[in-house]
What does this fold into?
Amino acid sequence: MATHDRIFDGLADKFAASLYGAPRGELRLALLDHLLPLTLPLEGQPALDIGGGLGQMSAWLARRGHAVTLAEPSQEMLGRAREALPDFSIEFLPISLQALPDNAPGPWPLIVCHAVLEWLADPREAIGIINELLAPGGYLSLMVFNRDALRFSNIIKGNLDKALDDRLEGTGKRQRLTPISPLTHDDISRWLTEQGLVVEHVAGIRVFHDYLRERDPNEATLARLFELERRYCDIDPHWRLGRYLLYSIHKPDTSGILE
It folds into this structure.
C-alpha cells in the first residue's frame, strides 16, 4: 500500500502524451462531453476542479459559463494549465486536495474530481474531505481508475500471476503511470454511503477501447467505437469494465428536515 500521494512534477509531458495525446484521451473527453450534461444539473454555478492537472475539465466548465477554481498540487502541471488557458477566467490554486478545506472551503455547489483518488495514499479520507467542501444540495462529478478493469487488462496481457496475487497497484516511482490506489465500485459505493452522498448515475469510460487488439485504429473504426462506447457506457454489465468509472453524485440538503 502506498504511503504518499503521487504528485506529477516532472511528468507533465508523459502525462499529456500518454493520456491526452492519443485516441484514448480524445475518447475519454468525448464521452465526458456526452455524459456530463445528461447526468449533472449544469447551470453556470461556481465549480471546483480538484486535481485539475492540465486543465481540460476546467476549460470545459469555463466554456459553459462556470466560474472555475482549479486546484492542482503539481507546480509543473498547474503552469501548463495556465499557459493553455489564458483566455478563460479561471482561478489557479497550487494546493493538494487535503489543503482545500483551509484554502477554498466553499461550500461548493459543483465539484469535479476526475482521475485523482487513485493517486492518493488514502482515497477514503479524500471522499470525506470532498463531502466537507460540497454544499448541501450540491453535485460531485467523480471519476476513478477501475481496479477490476485493471485486473482484466492484466489477464488479457498474460500477467496471470500478477492478477492472481492481486498485485495491481503501481509503485508511484519513475515514469510509470499505473495508479497507486486503483479502486473498485464497491469501494466507492461504500465510502459514499458513509458520507451520506447519493449516486444518481454511474458509467464506464472506455469500456471497449482498451481491450482492442488493433493498437492504432483508423478514424472510421474510432467513430464506430465511440458509438459503441456511448451506447453501452451505462448499461449493465458493460459499464463495470470501463477503464474509469464516472459517478454523478448528489449531496442531499437536509437543512429543512432538521428544522
